[in-house]
């Protein structure tokens, strides 16, 4: 008989045994334990609020503040038109060229002020976006915890020595192997069969890159679209269900609702059919600039037009996707790092708003049948790295970056320009373990 | 409640989880302690010290491998601390190293756990410690060497001799048992 077989027989015979313990033993152990933490609920609740409400609040702030900006600009249209119209008449009666120029500057003062305000609003938006990018710093505490688990210099030596052979002296792979080798068969079987399920609910502010390339259209149209459309705020939210394939590997799927809001901004000049839409106002001099050539066209406009105004349209894109992801988890105490990757299938694509048509003269409703966008944008790939922290028995908070990339164009085949989309988001949410 | 949930509860200092974990493992761990200290009172002292250390260091458990194995090693180390005054002496008792191949399956199967433990406990201390740590608790020779402050080679040779000594006892017991029957 081999030594290993002999050892196995002994182990099987003795390892299933249990001895009764005296009833007072738990009390003796409990007396030596630190007092149960007070106020755990409040502290954990604070964590939860921080993880969920701050990103949500920032996202909501941007979304709502932008809506206000758009509506206020739209409200100003009649006043601007009236002001410019009145001042155009002043220009017409001026004979001297310099006087005319001064009048033009004066005449466009209101419009310029409005435009400056617009730019100011844009600057604020950019600044906060930059601040928003600082969010990943919340991962830093994890690194601190991970480093202290290696060897804590504050731990009393005599106490630590008892753990030393287990924690330090062997490579982790060897320890795991040794432990698994001697794990009772019943427990191994239980672990294999035990399916643990979890559900994630999350929200993620997203930075979306909506790229436009030349399709069947002309370069002037591509430039116009690039100049007039700006992504202002994106976010995603959803729910996922997952289960553990073994101790460290998991599968998850669910529903992901991705929303992107874009702003279309251009100057509309009625009665100027021979000029392209997309004129913008130079915020310093108040001149009109042709977005295609960047040339000043102030004289032409002022001399011919009797009303103008900046038009801003908010477009909304919604994609509902089903992600299918596999991932791996690394644990350290209450923390874990989970990375996952996979694909997602689009099951719904919806569009609201208007864009400039290829003739650069009029707008097209993107929710209509003539939309240049696909009704289903197909497949994408997705990746996430999430830090989790257990705050209650079955509840963890989640935070970390996520990345989505659409494999195909979101624009239809034959559309004037080709449009693609990818996004980077900051995932935050909660997980319920069942 | 799964082990993971219990562990996470204990890390948070949840008293109910700590108690549940204690109740789940105390019986098994007392058996472990008994292998080293050999009387109930000392075993419970070791169990108490061991569980205090388990709760103190539970956040360092990395969820890799068996949690029971992790507790078991803490208990063994706690037991060794209890008998620290005992300094390990290499056993030099002679054993027959050229024993013929023999099938102990039936012998062990016919024997109660109590009888088997009695045979193991009857081994010289040095043999018993290494045998228990390696065969039953699952320590590696490196871990045994560090815990007992001996060399790995000594651990290996003591295990070999312990195994042979136990086999001799079992074989003798079988013969005695057969003759009596």
Describe this protein with a few key phrases.
A: 434 residues; alpha+beta; Porin; eight-stranded antiparallel β-barrel; two-stranded antiparallel ribbon; B: 181 residues; mainly alpha; Rna Polymerase Sigma Factor, Chain: A; Arc Repressor Mutant, subunit A
Describe, in plain words, how this protein is organized in 3D:
The complex is a heterodimer of chains A (434) and B (181). In chain A, strand 10 (379-390) and strand 11 (395-406) form a beta hairpin. Chain A folds into 2 domains: 42-132 and 195-433, Porin; 137-185, no CATH class. Chain A has helices at 3-15, 25-32, 40-93, 97-107, 109-132, 140-148, 157-167, 172-181, 185-193, 219-228, 298-304, and strands spanning 197-214, 229-244, 249-268, 280-281, 288-289, 309-332, 335-352, 354-356, 363-365, 379-390, 395-406, 417-433. The model of chain A is unreliable at 66-157, 160-170, 175-193, 270-276 and 298-308 (pLDDT under 50). Chain A is α+β, with helices and mostly antiparallel strands and 434 residues long. Chain B contains 9 helices and no strands. In chain B, helix 1 packs across helix 2, helix 3 (40-57) packs across helix 4 (67-82) and helix 8 crosses helix 9. The longest helix of chain B has 29 residues, at 152-180. Chain B is globular. The termini of chain B are far apart. Chains A and B meet through helix 1, helix 2, helix 7 and helix 8 of A and helix 1, helix 2, helix 3, helix 4 and helix 5 of B.
Give the name of the CATH architecture of the largest domain in chain A.
Beta Barrel
CATH fold annotation of the largest domain in chain B: Rna Polymerase Sigma Factor, Chain: A
Number of strands of chain B: 0
* CATH H level, superfamily name of the largest domain in chain B: RNA polymerase sigma factor, region 2, helix turn helix motif
Characterize the main sheet of chain A: 8 strands, antiparallel, barrel
The oligomeric status of these chains comes to heterodimer
Helix content of chain B: over 70%
Order of the strands making up the biggest sheet of chain A: 1-2-3-6-7-10-11-12
CATH second-level architecture of the largest domain in chain B: Orthogonal Bundle
Shape of chain A: elongated
Residue-averaged pLDDT of chain B, rounded? 82
Q: How many distinct folded domains of chain A? A: 2
